[in-house]
Design a protein that fits this description.
alpha/beta, seven-stranded mixed beta sheet, four-stranded mixed beta sheet, globular, binds ribulose-5-phosphate
Length: 234
Amino acid sequence: MSNSDIAKRIAAEAAAALVEDGMLVGLGSGSTLAYVVMALGRRVRDEGLDFTGVPTSSETEALAITQGITLTALSEAKLDLAIDGADEIETGTLRLIKGLGAALLREKIVVQASRRFVVVSDASKIVTHLGQRAPLPVEVVQFGQVATAHRLAELGGKPVLRLDRSGAPRITDGGNVIYDCGGFAPIRDPFTLQRQLKAIAGVVESGLFLDCAEQAIIGEPDGSTYTMWPAGAR
Ligand code: 5RP
């Protein structure tokens, strides 16, 4: 197992320990979240943990089923907790870029429906300014996508249509496409950028997750974890 995988797994186990009996828990997507799902599956089997998960992607749903986790669709107004990975975590603010796994829309809906949102990651995702290591994914409806991409380019985003392994456009679980926008970096005013993006009719959502993370649990390859909080939270 690589150092990064060890770090992700240890952070995932710490986050899985936050889940209690009776909770309704949003389960994000990606490789770190897969470790969370496996840790929760172990707790279900070993301790009889009795919680219900709300998966944010078909991949997470399929894995959770193999782990014996009870699942439901998002039909409640409020979840107790959402756990998810991130592509970038800004120090001090805990603002995030998400969506390199193409599940950003459902992930954001679940986060906004949750009382608490805990991020799990290894330290490689920590940045001082958003945009430092990842392009900003922007989910766009297929109708008129070229015109929408033109608008993203006018904003300075340098949009690149995401392709899957076969070279075809990556279609999200919501039936949309994703433009990865490397041109916004460094993102110094993410709130203004989010407003500008959402003003474009063809944009469904962006991968900016702003001021919603309660804490970020960071794993280290030596098996330790530490927690980052937004400035002023403690
Ligand atoms: C998916 C996401 C993931 O949380 C993000 O891409 C992190 O993935 P990983 O844990 O594999 O690094 O936002 O849409």
